[in-house]
Automatic annotation (TrEMBL):
PROSITE patterns: TOPO_IIA (PS52040). It comes from Polarella glacialis (Dinoflagellate). One of its GO terms (molecular function) is ATP binding. This is DNA topoisomerase (ATP-hydrolyzing). The lineage of its organism: Eukaryota, Sar, Alveolata, Dinophyceae, Suessiales. One of its GO terms (biological process) is resolution of meiotic recombination intermediates. Its EC number is 5.6.2.2.
């Protein structure tokens, strides 16, 4: 009764999920109750802070947040430093598959640029800045075409698309005069292939459900590690208690069998009431 509908043929739990959310934690999580039925926990305790892997962006009542993505390998390396009580290393935002450039531009700020190349006939664009969608950029390029409803100052001759499933690829054809103007202004700037990332508005709910502003990613890692460490201790105690109970049960079974073998306990031809006594 708990399986997905037949139309969801690709819906399944990936093998990676249980590496991030350990099955050993299931017994020690705090579960919610809905109409007398136990449902999902109030929150899970993954092995790494996923908010730094996936990032977060949003607006709420009186607050907003913008948490960049970071490299899981760097996060794991810093967690290992934390365990060894060593100083953690600063991290730079990282996005899987992004081939552009992310470079510092002041405290907690970064400049992001896409990838483009000048050719004999125009400009080839093979990467857009982060958080700039392909369709939006296509509409921007179309304003440069002749006959556009909202014509741009820079006019081009043609725009072609050769995208793949995972990669953007625009080919913009322009005359020599337009190309010279773009180079003078800076091709990246002229083609609006610039963006920015900020680490100055990292606002999240902590493990107690309180809103908190974090100075940087390392502060998030440090707080996460404290909670994760606590749950390792809770899990350890639970497993010790569980194994102790199993040991006592097996020990009593062995003692029972031993008493029968040695004749100290006779169970044959005896009434059940006598055995219970």
């Amino acid at each position: 009764k708990d399986h997905a509908s037949a139309r969801y043929i690709y819906t399944r739990l990936t093998n990676l999920t249980r590496l991030i959310f350990s099955q050993l934690d299931d017994a020690v999580l705090s579960y919610q109750d809905e109409d007398g039925q136990r449902i999902e926990p109030h929150w899970y305790v993954p092995v790494i802070p996923l908010v730094l892997v996936n990032g977060a962006q949003g607006i709420g009542t009186g607050w907003s947040t913008d948490v960049p993505n970071y490299d899981p390998r760097e996060i794991i390396a810093n967690l290992r430093l934390f365990i060894k009580k060593q100083k953690m290393k600063p991290m730079r935002p990282w996005y899987r598959g992004f081939s552009g450039v992310i470079k510092p531009a002041g405290k907690g700020k970064y400049e992001v640029t896409g990838v483009c190349e000048a050719t004999d006939k125009g400009i080839e664009i093979t990467e857009l800045p982060l958080k700039k969608w392909t369709q939006d950029y296509k509409e921007f390029l179309q304003t440069m075409l002749p006959g556009s409803d909202k014509p741009s100052k820079m006019q081009v001759q043609d725009v072609r698309e050769y995208h793949t499933e995972n990669k953007v690829h625009f080919v913009v054809k322009m005359n020599d005069e337009t190309m010279a103007a773009a180079k003078q202004q800076g091709i990246v700037k002229a083609m609006k292939l610039e963006g920015s990332i900020s680490e100055t508005n990292m606002v999240l709910f902590d493990h107690q459900g309180c809103i908190k502003r974090y100075k940087n990613a390392l502060e998030i890692i440090e707080e996460f590690a404290g909670v994760r460490w606590k749950y390792y201790e809770i899990r350890k105690k639970y497993l010790i208690d569980k194994l102790t109970l199993e040991r006592n049960l097996l020990s009593n079974r062995a003692r029972f069998i031993g008493m029968i073998v040695t004749g100290k306990l006779i169970v044959n031809n005896r009434k059940k009431d006598d055995l219970v006594k």
